[in-house]
Design brief:
Layout: E1 11-12, E2 15-16, E3 18-20, E4 23-25, E5 32-36, E6 43-48, H1 52-69, H2 74-90, H3 92-103, H4 107-131, E7 136-139, E8 150-158, E9 161-165, H5 173-184, E10 188-191, H6 198-211, E11 218-220, H7 225-233, E12 240-244, H8 248-255, E13 261-264, E14 269-273, H9 279-291, E15 301-307, H10 308-323, H11 342-357, E16 361-362, E17 368-369, E18 372-373, E19 376-379, E20 396-402, H12 405-414, E21 417-418, E22 420-424, H13 428-437, E23 442-445, E24 458-459, E25 461-462, E26 465-466, E27 468-469, H14 471-477, E28 479-487
Parallel strand pairs: 2-6, 9-10, 9-12, 10-11, 12-13, 14-15, 14-22, 15-20, 19-20, 22-23
Antiparallel strand pairs: 1-2, 3-4, 5-6, 7-8, 8-28, 13-26, 16-19, 17-18, 21-25, 24-27
Helix pairs in contact: 2-4, 2-6, 3-4, 3-6, 4-5, 5-14, 9-10
The structure holds glyceraldehyde-3-phosphate.
Main location: cytoplasm
EC number: 1.2.1.9
Protein name: NADP-dependent glyceraldehyde-3-phosphate dehydrogenase
Length: 496
């Protein structure tokens, strides 16, 4: 159970502690923040409401710890990461239980998230020793006018303190996807988990604590965004921000100083379906891509753009599959579970009502109980409807009928987002042409969008983000290049 066994020390009465300087602590604010269970809509957990003063202390210890960590051999950093990965997997049950309770993730998916996270940490350790163990050697005489009098050595050095802000939908996996690259590269971490998801994240952090990382290297502060959000992101002690979430990221990037940013801010992933597509394959991917975790994934299929000639057939196939989705509690491992909050459910409902007023065809009856929204496919959606452009982040999927490939590409590219997209066709040449024309960070051919496997590059363009993630890209992003130039008194040519 959460907060029990090896995790007992992270709980004080009914409030989970925050983690700083290698210790679990109570905030001197004496205040806590409630985490509402999306299913019961009652308080499930409480976490500390850290103060700005506590953030300052955390930044100081993260800075000192980083200096020592940067002098820790790479193999040793990797060894500790492997240890943390094993501990994380060993304790998957209580962490998954927290995911079920605080973000209503279906039980099996919650376990998968923890296991995937352990694998990510191990892969990162392995990749880190390879890519950080080598640099470049350049000689000066390749540039006009130079003799071979200079040897240039380049290596990758850490940035310092990384501020990691993961979203509610993957509070463990998208936290470790920032923590592990940061640590292997010699940085320290200040983690600000989402409130909904904070308890899962605190358990994950304890696994790193149990692995024996040095004091102050990993820190996790909880609290209200209104009190410590801007304070953290604008803190002079932060040397890099890695953020995944909504358009708060745009505000953060405007306020952050001259530091590297890694941002992933959602998407409106289009699924373009051509006349020759295998419609059973498409329907299966629309279900998986549009409705897994109730559509609360940035990479979810968020609009289907299907050629009119096959639209009826596709709609029938998708309807048949939607009818088979189980709807209910995450504990029962239902396919569709309550969305994360009441405000999120209200927002989704607003999009549905707008589509209704403007004449969309409801393939199922709209049904909602509390935060639980039944899966809904909206046919005949038109560009004047909000749902054609906005991200519901819920189990509601719009379908737009198109009459040409150009129309599909145009809709995809008119979005302010550009995360991923997919195209279904048996004609690989067309798939490549369409994929190249789609203004998105990734295009999937004949499969739904997805971030994983976690070592693949993952990036969005336009409002979908800054920079690229994936294990190798994140390690590189969390380092700087340092060069040392050896100046020779006279030219020297090997074998010359
Ligand atoms: O929600 C944003 C995530 O990066 C999506 O990850 O494709 O593994 O669900 P996923």
């Amino acid at each position: 159970m959460a907060g029990n066994g090896v995790f007992a020390e992270i709980l004080d009465g009914e409030v989970f502690k925050y983690y700083a300087d290698g210790e679990w602590k109570k905030s001197s604010s004496g205040k806590s923040v409630a985490i509402i269970n999306p299913t019961t809509r009652k308080t499930q957990y409480k976490v500390q409401a850290c103060s700005q003063e506590e953030v300052n202390k955390v930044m100081d210890s993260a800075k000192s710890a980083q200096k020592l960590w940067a002098k820790t051999p790479l193999w040793k950093r990797a060894e500790l990461l492997h240890k943390a990965a094993a501990i994380l997997k060993e304790h998957k049950a209580p962490i998954a239980e927290s995911l079920v309770k605080e973000i209503a993730k279906p039980a099996k998916d919650a376990v998968t998230e923890v296991v995937r996270s352990g694998d990510l940490v191990s892969y990162c350790a392995e990749e880190g020793v390879r890519i950080l163990g080598e640099g470049k050697f350049l000689v000066s005489d390749s540039f006009p006018g130079n003799e071979r009098t200079k040897y240039c050595l380049t290596s990758k050095i850490p940035l310092g303190v990384i501020l990691a802000i993961p979203p509610f939908n993957y509070p463990v996996n998208l936290a470790v996807s920032k923590i592990a690259p940061a640590l292997i590269a010699g940085n320290s971490i200040v983690l600000k988990p989402p409130t909904q998801g904070a308890v899962s994240a605190l358990h994950m952090v304890h696994c790193f604590h149990l692995a024996g990382f040095p004091k102050g290297l990993i820190n996790c502060v909880t609290g209200k965004g209104s009190e410590i959000g801007d304070f953290l992101t604008m803190h002079p002690g932060v040397n890099c921000i890695s953020f995944t979430g909504g358009d708060t990221g745009i505000a953060i990037s405007k306020k952050a100083g001259m530091i590297p940013l890694q941002m992933e801010l959602g998407g409106k992933d289009a699924c373009i379906v051509l006349e020759d597509a295998d419609l059973d394959l498409v329907a299966g991917n629309i279900i998986k891509g549009g409705f897994s975790y109730s559509g609360q994934r940035c990479t979810a299929v968020k609009v289907v753009l299907v050629m009119e000639s096959v639209a009826d057939a596709l709609v029938e196939k998708v309807k048949a599959k939607v009818a088979k989705l189980s709807v209910g509690a995450p504990e029962n491992d239902c396919d569709i579970t309550p969305v994360v909050s009441e405000s999120s459910a209200n927002f989704i409902e607003g999009l549905v009502m707008d589509a209704k007023e403007k004449g969309a065809t409801f393939c199922q009856e709209y049904k909602r109980e509390g935060n639980l929204i039944w899966p809904l496919l909206l046919d005949n959606v038109r560009p004047d409807m909000r749902i054609a452009w906005e991200e519901p982040f819920g189990p509601v999927l719009p379908l737009i009928r198109i009459n040409s490939i150009e129309e599909g590409i145009h809709h995809c590219n008119a979005s302010n987002f550009g995360l991923q997209g997919c195209v279904f066709t048996k004609d690989i040449n067309k798939a490549i042409m369409i994929g190249d024309a789609m203004e998105t960070g990734t295009v999937q051919i004949n499969s739904a969008p997805a971030r994983g496997p976690d070592h693949f590059p993952f990036q969005g363009i336009k409002d979908s983000g800054i920079g690229s993630q994936g294990i190798t890209n994140s390690i590189n992003m969390m380092t700087k290049i340092k060069t040392t130039v050896i100046n020779l008194p006279s030219p020297s040519y090997t074998m010359g």
